[in-house]
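Margin note from the TA: students keep mixing up input and output lines. Inputs are the sequences; the output is the structure of the whole complex. Example:
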Amino acid sequence: MSDGAEARPRRRSGGREARRAARLHEVAEKVPFLTRTLTPVEVLSEEGVSLIEHNADAILERVGVEIHGAPDALKLFEGAGANVDGERVTFPPGLARQLVQATAPHEFDQHARNPANTVHIGGDATVLAPAYGSPFVRDLEGGRRYGTIEDFRNFVKLAYTTPFLHHSGGTVCEPVDLPVNKRHYDMVYAHLRYSDKPFMGSVTHPLRARDTVDMARIVFGPDHLEDHVVVMSLINANSPLVWDASMLGAARTYAEANQALIMTPFILAGAMSPATVAGAAAQTLAEALVGMAYVQLVRPGAPVVFGSFASSMSMQSGAPTFGTPEPALVLYTLAACARRLGVPFRSGGSLTASKIPDAQAAYESANTLQPTMLAGVNFVLHAAGWLEGGLTMGYEKFVMDLDQCGMMAAFAKGVDLSENGQALEAIVTNGPGQHFLGAEHTLANFETAFFRSSIADNNSFEQWEAEGSKDAITRANAIWTKMLAEYEPPPIDEAVDEELRAWIDRKKASFPDSNV
Amino acid sequence: MSDGAEARPRRRSGGREARRAARLHEVAEKVPFLTRTLTPVEVLSEEGVSLIEHNADAILERVGVEIHGAPDALKLFEGAGANVDGERVTFPPGLARQLVQATAPHEFDQHARNPANTVHIGGDATVLAPAYGSPFVRDLEGGRRYGTIEDFRNFVKLAYTTPFLHHSGGTVCEPVDLPVNKRHYDMVYAHLRYSDKPFMGSVTHPLRARDTVDMARIVFGPDHLEDHVVVMSLINANSPLVWDASMLGAARTYAEANQALIMTPFILAGAMSPATVAGAAAQTLAEALVGMAYVQLVRPGAPVVFGSFASSMSMQSGAPTFGTPEPALVLYTLAACARRLGVPFRSGGSLTASKIPDAQAAYESANTLQPTMLAGVNFVLHAAGWLEGGLTMGYEKFVMDLDQCGMMAAFAKGVDLSENGQALEAIVTNGPGQHFLGAEHTLANFETAFFRSSIADNNSFEQWEAEGSKDAITRANAIWTKMLAEYEPPPIDEAVDEELRAWIDRKKASFPDSNV
């Protein structure tokens, strides 16, 4: 007997298993967000984290950041004690950190249209959201093509349907069939109408941020936003060490409305930062501190999230690479920095450079999602669907990743040490040489014992072959098409929906279409 | 700008990258084993680990184990203070643990034919070895078929060639074309002749263990084994709570020769243990303690490794499932138990139930290998090649997994906090808005900055499409065929080789072939 095949009980027919797997979404425990029970993994000692913080301070003091085209931001920083020279802003050591720590909340709730779906951002909470920003979509039959508003709605519906994502996300794909200057109306509407989970707002122009806030006010009530976060939006730095006007303008609009912002340096290490983990981490921290400080200067107390998107790159071709060890080390390092800073942290996801949901995609995605969970990331954008370095949102990849998100939910609970979990009496009474398949304890734990994948085929080779030798992509295709076919929209107040649609129609008619 | 495609530099042609990737094995750093720098991840508090230990003690006291057909073992346990009733052995609380802790070494070296490949087992060392025990093999062209001695030699050659495995393994696949009672001669010979990394011995019969030791004595010298471990072998319990004669007989042979043993309960939780993490962990610890205590009673001080193979199972079909959260939690839990016990730990690998190296295989494998590394496993069997729950050894899967093993080597080093690693001056002198691609620091770190995958395609979609839209399986196929084509055997003393082959011929001729 060995670890190999001989040691296992004979496998039975998979027909029953297939039927059970189809019931997956009914049995899966529905929680509005994950509550982690495990201590975050540290890859640096406290001294190591201090060194990264010290270097971020040194960067901000010695070279600082440039703020392009945003005189209001320069004025705010100057008033707070930073040194402004043209568009260059440098900070006395510790100032940016103090500005953040003085007023930024440690944790906050993002309220959903359905209160049962309100999420907590920060602390032991982890919120999983779909991928963001792909101009292309891909599915098994249609291949790769530009995203449309129908694709956008489909991904909103899929994210609404699954118990394993807690958030509707933002630009789940670019609806390239709509004019650039008006597509945000349909995107935000889709999140509000086809889902009742929390969502992200438009950031491509301050006016589009304003529209997002106005639409949220129609749905949540005119005064509700003043003390409730209902929109959280993604603001990227222009690394290295630049923040620009359109992003900061959108951030200002949301901050003034007390809505949450994820201030995220987007770094391909080697191109936008040095090619080392400690270098990329220190620079990310420096850039993010400036972004978060800006939000606090606009409106003290407005919720901010420390964001980091860090990938390695092929030093040969300049292409971004994912699932490699170095970005994982950056992630662990910056999660520790965020904890010491006292703000929620956003990073990670299910990232890959693969063009298709093959083994490369899965290895790279798992190698990103594992550190994401173990580091204790609070908000996980790109948790499902990401392909091709973010250029493509994949339907099959989306449901494969959902499966993994479900596993993370089970993992996050940690080890059950209850009497039932210990199962001591079951072992003692069962005795040597008797299998546990029919044991009382096994039967009592039958439904919930193990995470049940909807994608994995665990049948015998013969059964798998008899069912057509399907790979994971083919099985995933059947799952998302079924999910979409069975989708039912959440209820919405008809009057609110009408008001929202009328408002959108008026806005759309008030200025010409444009693709800039 | 967002996290999506817009933020990245333009991708260049991948032709250059492809040529660089082909050089991977030349640049990869060659180390005989990994030395971890990160603190092992804990999923339980100290009290939690104590509870598992307490339950293992309770199992051994209240129900104990059965030892089938091995009166010598019963006598040894009785002599050591255990209670023997027929074939049932129960232990006063703490006895089994004391027997192990009294004489088992905390760490040891397994010596390789080439001293540069000697591995350290225990402590901060992690040794990665190929998969073990599959009757079938699979490759892209030939599909799934029974393994042969040629396949066996191929996998030994591939494991020898890669810098990312540190061990030649044991039954890398079953050479089903050879008679059961003689195939161990050709297997052990293949490890000794086609590789010079450390290897594992035959365990299917005490006489085959004896043959393995005799062959090692021919190669390493007659007295060398007395104070050098050169063979490490895998002994499985017959869970729940049974050890049987053939396995213990093989273990006795190796222990008497002072060779190392991995005492491994092989558990599909739900079938061979309760369906809970804490239950499976306590039972595994109880069973392993008995196995390790037996080895210490046979020969005090003989090196033993605490082994655990734990998978979840489909509660619907009884099939084993891999890459799920629960076995990861068992692994973390038992790694902590092994550290407290003070012996090396074996577990994990790159496990999957998938029949082919698709996304399912990769997700599941990565979800096993990540905990394996993070928990600080010392000896990792099944690190490469495993498919179909261990029924199949895959050629393409093997090289895909090698890539992942390489990534783990990079990860295990942790964050470089040297001055070059910090890159502070590079950031300060580079300044805002300037990319780092041509920076002096980037050029200086060009070759070693990021782990370079040999399987991943990071090219643009257009380039990938122009090159035939290959998936990871197709690319992996090209890699292993090239590795085999370029294989060159390690040198061996011709006289020793001749003596070994003559000895094998004599042994083979001395008794008839049999398939039992």
